Structure formats: C-alpha cells, structure tokens
Input
Amino acid sequence: MMYLSSQQPTTIESNNAVETFSTSQLAERTNVSVETLRYYERRGLLPKPACRASGYRTYSTADVERMTFIQSAKGLGFTLREISELLELVAAPSTTCDRLRAEGMRKVAEIDEKMAQLERMKRQLQGMINNTCQAEQLADCDQLQSGEAIPTLSNPNGGENRCESS
Output
C-alpha cells in the first residue's frame, strides 16, 4: 500500500531490513533534483526526513512511493497545490472513492477547457498562416508593409489586449 500521510514512519522494513535512501538516492530514484526534494519538503508535500547522527537526511520506501505519486500527479496536470490537497484526501480515513473520483473528473473538465482553448488558438494561427503574404521576399510583401500580416489574436478572457494604467 502506498504511504501518503504526512507523518514519517519510525521504521520501514523490507525483507526484515530497514531500507533507507540518501537525498541523492531518492532524487535519482524519482527522477527529480535534490533541490526539488527540498522544495517539496518546504511546501509540505514531502515530510521532513529523519536525520542520521552524521546529519545526513534519510528517506524511506514510503518517501519513494510518495514522490512517485507526486510525479505521476504532476504528469496528469495537477498543480502542487492540488497534489497537496489530494495527499490530504488520501490520508484522511473519511475520504470516499466518490470524492477522489470527483477530483479526477474536475481535472478532466479543466483539461477539456484547455484543449478547446488550444484548438481556438490553433485555428487562429492557421488562419494567420493562410492569409500571410505569398511573396518570396519579405520586402515584396504588400501585406507586411500595410500591417495586414500582423496577427490580431483575440483575448480568451474577453476585453482588449492592452495594459491598463492604475
């Protein structure tokens, strides 16, 4: 079972031996940088690790699983804030499968909206490309000289595309 709660276990046993990882080993195993691990610790996504007497940090297999979950969720488009919320939900005994399913469906709807926005941008760009000057040299392009070839992209949030002074 994946360990996702925010509390660090005192020991992790695997085949009757405690398996621990250094910071660099955890980073390598989960394909992130050491700086990313420390950032996740500061953000509360990864619990503070135990420290050896030497002062070096030690991580458990649960931390490997947690980092794998975080990286998978990032790959699905979840933000770090959303991942933090998912981790809290998974750790809460009262969380239902319906609740997690609803979060997944919310993310799918968000992705659908982004895809629709990208499709609109693609159509606008294709229109701009199709209407661009066909001359061989830019200097010979009447559209460029008159400003017709300059794209006019609509603002997806509505309104004009300009800065407003306060």
User: Anything to note?
Assistant: Helices lie at 23-29, 34-43, 61-75, 80-91, 97-130, 142-146.
